[in-house]
Amino acid sequence: MILPCLTIAPSPKGGRGVFTTINLKAGTVIEISPVLVLSKNERAIVEQTLLYNYIFEWGKTGKKAAIGLGYLSMYNHDYNANADYTMDFEHAIMTITTVKKIKKGEEIFINYNANPSDNTPIWFDAK
């Protein structure tokens, strides 16, 4: 399920991102999508490709990886994210929910640290 108000467009952060075409309230589920789960060995292979930047750590130990279907891998990172994601390991799905009001035309961001306000440097910001 992807709300029809979501669209992918060029992002000011570079590349593409996910935007809304309507105002969204905080607490709105905007996407529920399946993922393809990769084993630890498959993850090691994928991490040596362009897909490295698009996978999510997966499983209780974080040793597996998941490739998000739908728009999941298109949400850009922000330390002050306006949306959050949850992972359902049993059913191999992820849910994106807004955590703030988002105005029509704004980009929707998730924090790649899995917490909308976690400021721990992520791999492409680590110095």
From TrEMBL:
Which InterPro entries is this protein grouped with? SET7_MeTrfase, SET_dom, SET_dom_sf
PROSITE patterns reported for this sequence: SET (PS50280)
| Ranges of residues in domain SET | 4-113
Species lineage, top-down?
Bacteria, Pseudomonadati, Bacteroidota, Chitinophagia, Chitinophagales
Which residues are in coiled coils? none
Q: Note the Pfam families from the entry.
A: SET
- Protein name (Swiss-Prot/TrEMBL): SET domain-containing protein
Q: Name one GO molecular function term.
A: histone H3K37 methyltransferase activity
